[in-house]
Structures are given as C-alpha cells and as structure tokens.
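Design a sequence for this backbone.
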C-alpha cells in the first residue's frame, strides 16, 4: 500500500483547509457534470443550428474527446511541477467560455473547434481534481473519491433538466448553455485563493521499486471501455428513445436525467460502501450490475418499461466503477499527475471513439445495433477487470 512520507505528513493542511479544498473540488466536478451532459439533449438543436445530420453532428463527441486527450497527455505534468489551483481555475473559465459560445455558432467546423477547446479545458479540471484529491486525503481517499464523482453525477443529472426547462420557457437551447456557463464563475472564485496541495512522495510499490506499468495499461484500457460506454449511453439515449418511438422529446430529456440521476444516487450509496468494502469487491458488484442492466434493456428493446428500468439500473451500477478504479490504483501504485494523465487519456479515447461509432450506426444500421455496441463495451469492461485482478494477485503487493 502507498503511504506518504513523514515530511509530507508534517506539511499536511488543517482539517478546515482540507474541507475548503474538498468543497472546491466537489464544486468543480459538479461543473464538469453540468458541461458533460448538456451536449446529448441538445444534439438536435445543435444539428439544426449548423444544418447537419446526426451522423455529422456526432463528430462533436470526437472533437471534445480529442481535446480532452491532448489535455490529459500534457496537463498532468503541470500539477506535478507547479501550483495546481490556478490551472483548475483556468479550466473552469475555459469551460464557461466554450459553453457560452456553443449555441451561437452556425458553422459545424467552428463548433468542432469550440468542442475541442472544451475538452482541453475539461481535462485541466478533471485531471487536476483527481490528482490533488489523493494528495489531500492520502490512503483515506476512497470515500472522498466516490464523493467527488457523486458531484459529477449530480451535475450530469441536473443538466438535462435545465435544458428541458430552458427549451420550454424560451423555445431554444441558448439560455441553458448561458446559465451553465455562469455557474463556473463562483466556483473559480472559491478555488483560486486557496493553497494548492503538494505532491505526495511515495514509497516503492513493488519489490524491485518500479512502477506497475501493466496495471497502468489495464486501468487505461478499462477506462477506454467504461467511459466509452458511459458517454455513449448518456449522449445517445435521448436520440435512441425518440428514434425507437419509445419516448417523446420531453420524456427523452427526462430519461437522460434518469440515467445521470441513477449514476448520482449510486455514487452517493457507494461513499459509505467504499469505507467498508475493498475496491475490488465494489468494482465487481458495479460491473455485474451493469451487465444485467444492459441485458434487460436489450432484451426488452421494443417496450418503454425495460428501457426505463435498464437505464436506472445501468446508471446505478456504473456509478462506483470509475472512482473505485482510481482508488484501487492509489492503493497499489504511486498516483502522480503524469499517471493520472495516462488514465484520462484512455478515458478520453473511449469518449472519442465509442460515441462516434454509435452515431455512425444510428444512420447505417438503426438504433438497436447502436445500443448493442454500448453493451459490448460493458462486456469489455468485465473482461479487463478479471485480467486486472489476476495480474494484481501475481504482483508482490497483492490486491487491495
């Protein structure tokens, strides 16, 4: 298990400082959730603004994930070497600017550029908070990590509701984007004056003192598959429900919120569970639940009831997978900005490839095959998880 050095413990912040920083990170992740879930329900509106087809507008997922990938591969080094909070604030302000511009753009290539920048600024916030939270809470990070990602789910749950209400009141999506953009400002003002946590100097994680590169690769691959499935489902369930004649426009927006809301509730429930269960046990429960939920949804594809039931179950079951995998990594290897960057590079590749693939399948093969593709991604997560457990059992540190 990784432990901080005596020097690091002596420099630990006070409980009040820890609380203030944790609140700032949670608020930042709420903002990421708000921004992440706004694109899916507004895809038809953005397609109308840019005079594009669904197969064309799906490139926005690619642009966003490409920007996130570029950021994930570079910004981690910033947090290892420089003060982290100014980078977080830069990310927040960048997200706000991109959201404010999005509904005003009528050219697809220009919207592509804005989404590229949005992904880049999101990575600054995402990588930074996931890196500095372990530096702040050390080995007790598991419940705090689940709490952090709970606020992502909360933001993603609220975002489609904001969209639905804005469309009902104003007739278009512009005010929804502008309201979400304004929320970034007070969060940036909270984080900026606080002192950034310092990197934790760690002991070697294995008998030969080397980093566990196999674990890095497997976690990166798991995130590629998991984030691809989560992003695809959250981004396309709105369009799937409408095209499959299973929901009206308003109900489809609420279905999207149901997915993110279930994810939020699942992460809230996983906070106390992370204090009692080992990471591998919590991960196993989440992955099995995700497989069962996708089975319900696919087997009952012709009816609305399995769609709603499968959506609830999938969101709830997926909830602990991402944060608990990060906690598992923290217990078996040093977590640095560079390492976290690789994890999020895999996540961004998944978020770039899978939603794009689903978008192509919508036009070519229909909505059911697109949803089946998401199910195959969940199966891939289960396979990689089993391989990861076997690899950790053979390592000198065992499995935490």
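Sequence:
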């Amino acid at each position: 298990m990784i432990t901080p050095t005596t020097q690091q413990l002596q420099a630990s912040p006070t409980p009040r400082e820890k609380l203030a920083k944790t609140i700032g990170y949670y608020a930042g992740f709420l903002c990421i959730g708000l921004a992440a879930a706004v694109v899916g329900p507004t895809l038809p509106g953005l397609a109308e603004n840019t005079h594009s087809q669904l197969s064309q507008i799906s490139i926005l997922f690619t642009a966003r994930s490409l920007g996130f990938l570029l950021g994930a591969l570079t910004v981690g080094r910033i947090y290892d070497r420089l003060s982290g909070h100014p980078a977080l604030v830069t990310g927040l302000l960048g997200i706000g600017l991109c959201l404010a511009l999005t509904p005003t753009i009528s050219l697809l290539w220009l919207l592509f550029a804005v989404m590229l920048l949005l992904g880049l600024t999101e990575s600054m916030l995402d990588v930074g908070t996931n890196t500095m939270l372990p530096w702040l809470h050390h080995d007790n990070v598991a419940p705090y990590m689940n709490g952090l990602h709970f606020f992502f789910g909360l933001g993603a749950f609220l975002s489609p509701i904001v969209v639905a209400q804005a469309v009902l009141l104003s007739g278009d999506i512009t005010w929804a984007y502008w309201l979400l953009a304004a929320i970034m400002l007070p969060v940036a003002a909270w984080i900026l004056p606080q002192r950034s946590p310092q990197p934790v100097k760690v002991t070697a994680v294995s008998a030969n003192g080397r980093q566990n590169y196999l674990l890095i690769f497997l976690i990166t691959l798991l995130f590629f598959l998991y984030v691809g499935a989560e992003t695809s489902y959250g981004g396309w369930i709105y369009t799937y429900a409408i095209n499959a004649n299973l929901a009206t426009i308003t109900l489809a927006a609420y279905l999207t919120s149901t997915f993110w809301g279930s994810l939020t509730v699942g992460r809230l429930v996983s906070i106390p569970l992370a204090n009692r269960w080992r990471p591998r046990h919590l991960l196993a429960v989440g992955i099995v639940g995700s497989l069962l939920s996708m089975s319900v949804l696919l087997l009952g594809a012709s009816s609305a009831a399995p769609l709603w039931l499968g959506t609830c179950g999938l969101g709830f079951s997926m909830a602990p997978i991402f944060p608990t995998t990060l906690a598992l990594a923290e217990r078996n290897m040093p977590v640095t900005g560079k390492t976290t960057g690789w994890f999020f590079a895999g996540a961004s590749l998944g978020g770039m490839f899978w939603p794009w693939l689903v978008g192509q399948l919508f036009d070519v093969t229909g909505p059911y095959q697109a949803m089946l593709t998401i199910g195959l991604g969940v199966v891939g997560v289960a396979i990689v998880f089993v391989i990861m457990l076997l690899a950790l059992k053979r390592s000198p540190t065992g499995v935490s």
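Residues 135 and 200 are 6 Å apart (CA to CA).
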